[in-house]
């Protein structure tokens, strides 16, 4: 089990305070929803938790810890097993579905045979085995979201931060992907899903609402 904690975490862009100082604990094994209207600060919070906001782009204060160890920068967060699925998926249009999952695994030094097995397993898990050779550009928005989730699952994250990762899915695939996020939590990860969708949020262990950067518990863990 891997715990995610932040203390006094805030995000500002020039004069805008997008996330007001926040203390948060997400225990390994739990799936937390971060809800709120457009512009509430959900993406900013997830990017700050992943230590992925560049100092030139945003002012981030506070600390983020995984299993008690403070994360310095994005590379440090990646080494600690933090995986962010960004809102627009972060996939490269010119890679195929399978390459999208394989390349980060090989870059991290996962042996080729194991990496290939993980690609097969995760494409099957998200129901896209027959689309493996399609370029990302040739996939629908919902299929791209499922590839992005498969890529994250293949990395076996200790902390998984998914930003609107079910927004383009039909109800059936949304249920499947939320079940997969729950399985990642059951494996021991701390999982956070930012979502507009009340039906997705209702299926999580706890829900935190953001409004103009102010966080309020809707359902406590
Ligand atoms: N790079 C940036 N520069 C300046 N302001 C930004 C930047 N990114 C976000 N903001 C502002 O910060 C606030 C929070 O934005 P954020 O994207 O975190 O919200 P969100 O809840 O994820 O919205 P959405 O649901 O539309 O994705 C908004 O007022 C937004 O305009």
Present the secondary structure layout:
Elements: E1 4-13, E2 16-26, E3 31-35, H1 42-49, E4 59-66, E5 69-70, H2 74-79, E6 82-85, H3 97-107, H4 112-125, H5 141-154, E7 159-163, H6 171-186, E8 190-194, H7 198-201, E9 206-211, E10 214-219
Parallel strand pairs: 3-8, 3-9, 6-7, 7-8
Antiparallel strand pairs: 1-2, 1-4, 4-5, 9-10
Task: Provide structural commentary.
The chain has one domain: Rossmann fold. A six-stranded mixed beta sheet has the order 6-7-8-3-9-10, with helices on both faces. Strands 2-1-4-5 form a four-stranded antiparallel beta sheet, covered by helices on one side. It is about 35% helix and about 30% strand. The radius of gyration is 17 Å and the shape is globular. It has seven helices and ten strands. With about 220 residues, the chain is α/β, with parallel strands linked by helices. The site of adenosine-5'-triphosphate has 13 residues, from strand 2 and helix 1.
């Amino acid at each position: 089990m891997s715990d995610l904690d932040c203390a006094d975490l805030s995000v500002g862009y020039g004069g805008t305070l997008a996330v007001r100082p926040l203390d948060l604990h997400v225990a390994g094994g739990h799936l937390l929803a971060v809800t709120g209207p457009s512009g509430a600060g959900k993406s900013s919070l997830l990017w700050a938790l992943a230590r992925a906001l560049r100092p030139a782009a945003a002012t981030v204060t506070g600390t983020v810890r995984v299993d008690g160890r403070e994360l310095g920068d994005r590379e440090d967060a990646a080494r600690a097993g933090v995986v962010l699925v960004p809102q627009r998926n972060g996939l490269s249009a010119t890679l195929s579905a399978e390459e999208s999952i394989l390349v980060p695994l090989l870059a991290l030094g996962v042996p080729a045979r194991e990496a290939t097995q993980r690609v097969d397993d995760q494409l099957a898990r998200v129901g896209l085995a027959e689309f493996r050779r399609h370029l990302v550009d040739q996939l629908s928005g919902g299929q791209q979201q499922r590839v992005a989730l498969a890529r994250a699952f293949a990395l076996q994250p200790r902390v998984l931060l998914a930003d609107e990762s079910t927004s383009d899915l039909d109800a059936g695939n949304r249920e499947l992907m939320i079940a997969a996020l729950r399985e990642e939590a059951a494996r021991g990860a701390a999982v956070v899903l930012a979502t507009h969708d009340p039906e997705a949020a209702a299926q999580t262990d706890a829900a935190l609402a953001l409004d103009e950067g102010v966080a309020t518990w809707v359902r406590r863990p």
